[in-house]
Amino acid sequence: MHHLTHATERAALALALILLLTSARISAQESPFASPLPESPGPLAADVLPPAEEARRMVAMMGGAVAVRAAAAEAAASTSAADWAWSMRLTALLLALDGGDREALRIRGDAARALATQAATPDRREAYLAEVRTTERSLQAPGPADGSVAAASAAEAAGGRHAAHAGPLSLPAADPWNIASNYASFALADASWTIDEDFPGTKLVFDGRYALRRGRGDPPSRDCDCQPRPTPQKMVGTVGAHLQWGEGEADIEYARLSLAALSYQWDYGPRSGRLRPYRDTLEWGVLQGGKDDPLGVDSYVELTLLRLARSWYYQSEGSPWLFTLGADLSGGYAWADSIDDTYQDVSNPVVGSSIRFGVSRSGWGQVYAEQRVNNGFTLSSPARGGAVSREARFRFGYLHRLHRCLTLDLFVEKRSFNFSDPDLPDLYTKSKRTGAALGCAF
């Protein structure tokens, strides 16, 4: 218990440091939709021009709407976050003059989508994606009402007031399928169903992911006047860790470390109505390894050549309910050793698949279910040459965003491992964990 207490104190200290740094980073940044001009203080505030008149004079001073539109388009096509923000300012002026300016709407949507890929926090990212949805709704609306929604929010931005976006719900901050987001979490869990009486009991669990380098991928070509594929966010060297300590133990009894060489993520602006994709991910060269004493796995190494994932989003117009669905597919090769000497150096090609389903309601949080199965192919024997479930995990939980980056996750999870050999009976082990995790995405 003494060792677990020290481990818990270290975990709480690390999480507090993450939250402090994240809060400082948030407070140091301006609002995504702040005014391009400072507001006049005190009694002079009554003499400030109305937003539309101010926009008209500024656009005229800059050479007219055509010149401002060209400058906004050039800034949106840049690779600089400062240029994307400048494009947002310029399009705010244009839309304050003409809410039906379709080119300004398209440019603004591109700039907001680009800013979302490098947002410092989930809240800022969702604010940019909400702006994308606003511009898309305005572009889809027929007739003279074109752009009225986007014009209202743009006028708010141009006039120095923060726009309140009423769009689809924010996705959870600690979304494990959002590989572009760094996160860290600590959990206390109760474990059972293990292979030995030494392993059940209270556990301290750490889970985290961090990208060593970030940037933007190549912008997609645009051959039509249609919904463009967004420019992806690019991550090089994404490190992941999942560690578990037992009660009264300083040694790690379950560890999984990973390194993804190259990753891409495309974030779309979700819209209400039918089921639509809102995120695509691609990972190349994922190497992971570790051990799992509660399942009797002495060592495990897996090299994933490629992993593809897509997530979908559905929300009816005006409904507080949100439905998400995700699926991924991966392929590679795995090596495993059991603590049972009979099952040593078991290796085979593997094909993995995952599916995740979530239901959220505004202010209530999200209920989710996720299952991952890694199928190994025993090619060494014609009689046993089919697929064998090598590794499997099922998790059911409730996720709730508390404040800014902070989330609470209440979960129950079962994982299993299967050693298979043509000349031996299958060795199947399983374990269950029930617990609560406190995490932060940053």
User: Based on helices, strands and strand pairing, what is the structural class?
Assistant: alpha+beta
CATH level-four homologous superfamily name of the largest domain: monomeric porin ompg
CATH architectural label of the largest domain: Beta Barrel
Q: Major β-sheet, in short?
A: 12 strands, antiparallel, barrel
Which of globular, elongated, flat, extended, rod-shaped describes the shape?
elongated
- Please state the average pLDDT score: 76
Please report which band the strand proportion falls in: under 5%, 5-15%, 15-25%, 25-35%, 35-45% or over 45%.
35-45%
Low-pLDDT runs: 1-5, 19-31, 34-40, 142-174, 379-387
Tally the structural domains: 2
Order of helices and strands: HHHHHHHEEEEEEEEEEEE
Oligomer: single chain
Question: Between the first and last Cα atoms, what is the distance in angstroms?
Answer: 31 Å
What does this structure look like?
This protein is an alpha+beta fold. Helix content is 25%, strand content 43%. The chain has seven helices and twelve strands. The chain has a twelve-stranded antiparallel beta barrel. Helix 4 runs antiparallel to helix 5 (102-117).
Secondary-structure topology with pairs:
Elements: H1 2-27, H2 51-61, H3 65-76, H4 81-97, H5 102-117, H6 122-140, H7 148-158, E1 183-192, E2 201-216, E3 233-246, E4 252-267, E5 276-292, E6 297-314, E7 321-338, E8 346-361, E9 365-377, E10 387-403, E11 406-421, E12 424-441
Antiparallel strand pairs: 1-2, 1-12, 2-3, 3-4, 4-5, 5-6, 6-7, 7-8, 8-9, 9-10, 10-11, 11-12
Quick structural gist:
By secondary structure, the protein is of the alpha+beta class. Helices cover 25% and strands 43% of the residues. It folds into two domains: 2-22 and 170-441, monomeric porin ompg (Porin, Beta Barrel), CATH 2.40.160.40; 31-158, Serine Threonine Protein Phosphatase 5, Tetratricopeptide repeat (Alpha Horseshoe).
